[in-house]
Amino acid sequence: MNLTMKVMLGMVLGIIVGIGINLTGLNVDGSFVNEYIVGFFHIVGKMFVNALKMLVVPLVLFSLITGVCGIGDVKLLGRIGSRAFILYMMTTAIAIATAILIAAGLGIGKGMNATTTAEFTGKDAPPLSQVLIDIIPTNPINAMAQGEMLSIIFFAILLGISLLMVGRKAKGVVELIEILNEVMMKMVSIIMALAPYAVFCLIAKAMADLGLDLLAQLIGYVVVLIGALLLHLFVTLQLVLKLFSGLSPKIFLKKIRNAQVFAFSTSSSNATIPVTLRTVTERMGVNNSVASFTVPFGATINMDGTAIMQGVATVFIANVYNVDLGVSGYLTVILMSVLASIGTAGVPGVGLIMLSMVFAQVGLPMEGIGLILGVDRLLDMVRTAVNVSGDAVVSTIVAKSEGKLDLAVYNDPEAGSFDTDDVHLDLDVEREMAQTVDSTHSK
Ligand code: ASP
User: Fold this and answer.
1) Cα-Cα-Cα-Cα dihedral of 263, 269, 275, 279, to 10°?
2) CA 102 to chain centre
3) pLDDT for residue 166 is more than 70
4) Sign of CA dihedral 21, 220, 387, 128
5) What CATH number should be reported for the domain holding residue 200?
6) What's the domain range around 371?
């Protein structure tokens, strides 16, 4: 069984065990199962997510510097950046527009009597001006410590360009960073080898905690939202892929599965960056010079799934509270969602914070968000998988358009598939390394 199959198996078993615990009521506070078994799932799952997050900053830094140096042409870099940006914004706008049309067409939430006990306090939108200013870090180490992706991207690109300008003298540094990038990729492989168990734990814990009764109450909202997400993933994004690159959506959908499962189980595009990067470069043949930029950039600014949630939620809550937003109201929602996605990072639950910004703008009641809060955990998982798929689609299109996609790799079903041999230690190499280090020390 290959890794993807094992991860899928972990996911399915996680769903079964988690829902089993939930339905049998074993998840009540203080019970043995909840304290120790679900508690154990929680610990293993969180450790795994931490391990993924641990890799994000160094991986983005090294791969992007390597990528910039690998392009060797600053103009091309600008083209890749602007193409990716336009495609990211375009897909997000399409996503939310379709979501609004579907939700409004079906009239979800009409005639529903809303009572909510959950509290939700909104947040103020960071003004776009501040988002722009913050792209340039005053202290790159601080930006890395805080995981501020746009600042890290900026710093890495500038560093890469400067290394190119210094030229031959900097060759050693570039080579070192290239090696470090390879080492980081190896760390991704080690962590991926543990994924089947971790994914099981993450999903079992999430499902055990799920408010299934709440899910039943909001069934209309949940079904329409998941339907719109699947439509975007399987139809819209695939049409965009075919139209702009001519590549086969079938192959894409098969190869993206691993990244989707990681996104689904971690609910974080950011934490999934290592896996997305590995998937698009090694499975799909996107050159690192494109992917090292488009993947972290997309994880930060591109959120198609989140936009769809905002569209459906806006219509739903407007209907529940009998507010008529009108065409201009909905156009504002589209614009606001696209803008909000630029300034917020892909981490769990951020979609609701963005929604509160949108609501503040169009004057919908903030307590409406309390209504959907209880089911958001599950929906966050699904929409994050869509977010990450959108990042991969755009990365693939941009790479193809610049001649930076290896078609042979894309079309090879086995290319880059995970092999456990990837993570084995070679005893001879180990000994040789030890001897070299030893002899340098004793000199
Ligand atoms: N969890 C999502 C992501 O990381 C963002 C959200 O919709 O809350 O992409």
Assistant:
1) 90
2) 24
3) yes
4) negative
5) 1.10.3860.10
6) 3-433
HSE (CB half, 13 Å, CA atoms) of 430? 4
In a domain, 390, yes or no: yes
Q: Is residue 341 part of a domain?
A: yes
> Is residue 440 one of the residues assigned to a domain?
no
Q: What pLDDT is attached to residue 46?
A: 94
Q: Is the pLDDT of residue 120 over 70?
A: no
When divided into structural domains, the chain yields a total of 1
Q: What number does the ligand 1 atom closest to the CA of 305 have?
A: 7
Q: How far is the CA of 387 from the centre of ligand 1 (A)?
A: 7
Bridge partners of residue 286, in order along the sequence: 405
Cα diameter, the chain: 83
Write the CB contacts of 117 (distance below 8 Å, at least 6 apart in sequence): 370
The letter for the amino acid at 438 is D
Q: Say how far apart CA 331 and CA 153 lie, in whole Å.
A: 31
Predicted TM-score of the model (pTM): 0.90
Q: For residue 215, give Cα distances in angstroms to 78, 149, 309, 324, 381.
A: 45, 34, 15, 26, 15
In a domain, 326, yes or no: yes
- 412/414 Cα distance (integer angstroms): 5
Which atom belonging to ligand 1 lies closest to the Cα atom of 350?
Answer: 8
| Cα(234)–Cα(411) distance, integer angstroms | 19
Q: Is 267 in the pocket of ligand 1 (CB under 6 A)?
A: yes
313: closest CA among 234, 218, 385? Answer: 218
